[in-house]
Known about the structure:
Elements: E1 2-6, H1 10-21, E2 25-29, H2 32-41, E3 43-46, E4 52-54, E5 58-60, E6 69-74, H3 81-85, E7 92-100, H4 107-111, E8 119-126, E9 130-133, E10 136-138, E11 145-149, H5 155-166, E12 171-175, H6 178-198, H7 203-208, H8 210-229, H9 238-247, H10 256-262, H11 273-283, H12 288-297
Parallel strand pairs: 1-2, 1-6, 2-5, 3-10, 6-7, 7-8, 11-12
Antiparallel strand pairs: 3-4, 8-11, 9-10
Helix pairs in contact: 6-8, 6-9, 6-10, 6-12, 8-9, 8-11, 11-12
Amino acid sequence: MRIAIMGSGGVGAYVGSRLQAAGEDVVFIARGAHLAALQKDGLRLESPVHPLHLPTVNAVQEPSAVGPVDLIVFAVKLGDTEAAARQLAPMIGPETRILTLQNGIDSVDLITPHVGGAKVRGGVIYVSAVIDRPGVIRSPGGLHVIVADAAHGDPVMADFFAACERATGMDAKPSDAIAVTLWEKFIALTSLSGTTSLLRASMGQILAHPETRMLQRQLVDEAVAVGRAAGQVTRTDLADEIMAKLASMPYAFRSSMSEDLERGKPLELRWLSGRVHALGLECGVPTPGHSVVYRALVLYENGKPA
């Protein structure tokens, strides 16, 4: 497959590097010092499990330099979604699919109006990966799973799942109920992003203390309640399952939002705890924990306040 990675940060570069190592034709869309490092020294993935160095990668700044591809893996930060989607046209051919692996529950709806009828497939990824320094991605290990819309046998998506099966350090599972999957990931992600960012702590530290562990459970329960009120969550054991998954993560695991907060970068806050807060108001469901997270971090939403 010919695959373009739109947004070669932690998640995008992780996926792209695994696919290139498996033999796929991958081009990375990047910018700034990260782009320069990719072009000069290739891409390095530092991880305790399956570390990787690709000494040569195809990395460009502008999608217009790429041409039509089979699949666009869309992994930009949510705040950049619409601007990035408007740049995709040169890479879109008649059979191109766009797979969004962004956070939150709004990605497909945000992208679709800007891609001229190209098919946008929803997906989620469970992996911790950030740019440690230009050209270098750091991942502490743990989960490395993609769940994506199978679209009832879409051949391009089938080729993508086959490519992931050939890759090391990345598992992909097809789903014909991707809306439910997106919501379940959203509930887990918004809750762990809230605690690791608000408390400036790792998941291991949070779960090791009874008070912060109770806060973690509170955020999960609130997001589940909002999901049920919105008609998207039905499983009675979902909150317990999410807490068990959080407990299985590496002790040092932190959300990408907490990493962005530490580095003074813009936050995806309004699409995570801010989204739970807004949906709670809309559905009449109390969300005191997520509301506090949103209100406590909103001054940092656009980076460090002046």
